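Aim 2 progress. For 23S rRNA (Cytosine1962-C5)-methyltransferase, the working sequence is reproduced below.
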Amino acid sequence: MLIITIKQGKEKSLLAGDPWIYASAVEKIEGKPQEKNKPGATATVQTSSRQFIGRAAYNAKSQICARIWTYKEDEPVDHALIKRRVKAAIAKRAASVRAAGPNDLVPVVRGDEDGLSGLLVDSWGGVQGYLICQFQSAGVEAWKIAIVQALLAETGCPNVYERCDDLIRKGEGLPIFYRALAGEEPPDHVVVTEGKQRYSMDLRTGFKYPKVRS
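Predicted structure tokens for this construct:
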């Protein structure tokens, strides 16, 4: 198990609920080399006086070198935690998803807000439409299979597609992917309604066309 020790005084933001740990806040990292080199490896985070702060996903290639999963010492980072977080995120927005029209793009998971730092999921086309996912941190990347399984189970949507923000993924030292993770790829352009906006989009890339295409 990796152990991340935070510099004295730098733990205040973490204790206040900020899940991001910047490399400049770290005093030292202890653990086996293979753990340090594994993006998304789970680490115990502690103060300079060795008091437990939380468990985090570690990424040596990012300036945000760790992101807190949990502040509970008795809560392991495992499949059950991922399933609970995804289920809770979906339940939180279930009413808006149910009320969505056929062209509405609605949020399903929103990263830190849902305890899944770096994960963004949007729904388009209802239950038989598409879930568009962005894995923007090493932690959620490491748990991608479990996340997709939970999304399929909790939403009933058969199509899960991964797209990327290239700059963010490169900054995290992660490979660039545009691919179906389950079911079919979305079409190259669809009409999207988002709030009061209506536009044509390539769901696979996020590109918005200059004119609405029918």
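Residues 110 and 188 are 24 Å apart (CA to CA). This observation will guide construct design in the next reporting period.
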